[in-house]
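Submission checklist for the structure archive. All mandatory fields must be present; incomplete records are returned to the submitter.

[x] Identifier: Glycine dehydrogenase
[x] Organism: Calothrix parietina FACHB-288
[x] Residue count: 63
[x] Sequence attached
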Amino acid sequence: MCWVTQHLVTGEWNHPYSREQAAYPAPWTRQNKFWPSVGRIDAAFGDRNFVCSCLPMEAYSQQ
Protein backbone atom coordinates (compact mmCIF):
# COMPACT_ATOMS: atom_id res chain seq x y z
CA MET A 1 0.00 0.00 0.00
CA CYS A 2 1.34 3.41 -0.92
CA TRP A 3 2.23 5.75 1.96
CA VAL A 4 -0.42 8.30 0.98
CA THR A 5 -3.17 5.68 0.90
CA GLN A 6 -2.02 4.14 4.17
CA HIS A 7 -1.96 7.55 5.88
CA LEU A 8 -5.49 8.27 4.68
CA VAL A 9 -7.07 5.04 5.87
CA THR A 10 -5.23 4.16 9.10
CA GLY A 11 -4.31 5.75 12.39
CA GLU A 12 -5.33 8.94 14.08
CA TRP A 13 -6.44 11.89 11.93
CA ASN A 14 -5.33 15.25 13.37
CA HIS A 15 -5.97 17.52 10.40
CA PRO A 16 -8.51 20.36 10.08
CA TYR A 17 -10.08 18.64 7.04
CA SER A 18 -11.72 15.25 6.59
CA ARG A 19 -10.05 12.15 5.20
CA GLU A 20 -12.49 12.31 2.29
CA GLN A 21 -11.43 15.87 1.45
CA ALA A 22 -7.77 14.81 1.62
CA ALA A 23 -8.36 11.93 -0.80
CA TYR A 24 -10.63 13.85 -3.15
CA PRO A 25 -9.75 17.58 -2.96
CA ALA A 26 -11.65 18.47 -6.15
CA PRO A 27 -14.99 17.06 -7.38
CA TRP A 28 -13.50 15.56 -10.55
CA THR A 29 -10.93 13.51 -8.57
CA ARG A 30 -13.64 11.13 -7.35
CA GLN A 31 -14.07 9.86 -10.94
CA ASN A 32 -10.43 10.21 -12.09
CA LYS A 33 -8.28 9.58 -9.02
CA PHE A 34 -4.60 8.91 -9.70
CA TRP A 35 -2.26 7.81 -6.91
CA PRO A 36 1.28 8.76 -7.97
CA SER A 37 4.33 6.80 -6.92
CA VAL A 38 5.81 8.45 -3.86
CA GLY A 39 9.52 9.09 -3.55
CA ARG A 40 10.46 7.55 -6.88
CA ILE A 41 11.73 9.15 -10.05
CA ASP A 42 10.20 7.70 -13.20
CA ALA A 43 8.71 4.79 -11.22
CA ALA A 44 10.78 1.59 -11.26
CA PHE A 45 12.63 2.61 -14.43
CA GLY A 46 14.41 5.37 -12.51
CA ASP A 47 15.42 2.91 -9.79
CA ARG A 48 17.14 0.65 -12.30
CA ASN A 49 18.61 3.30 -14.63
CA PHE A 50 20.45 5.91 -12.63
CA VAL A 51 21.27 9.26 -14.18
CA CYS A 52 24.24 11.13 -12.81
CA SER A 53 23.74 14.87 -12.57
CA CYS A 54 27.35 15.50 -11.54
CA LEU A 55 29.81 17.57 -13.50
CA PRO A 56 32.17 15.65 -15.81
CA MET A 57 35.36 14.36 -14.16
CA GLU A 58 37.43 16.95 -16.05
CA ALA A 59 35.70 19.69 -14.06
CA TYR A 60 37.27 18.36 -10.85
CA SER A 61 40.83 18.16 -12.13
CA GLN A 62 43.49 20.38 -10.56
CA GLN A 63 44.92 22.91 -13.02
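[x] Structure attached
Curator remark: The helical segments are 3-9, 19-23, 43-48. Residues 37 and 43 are 6 Å apart (CA to CA).
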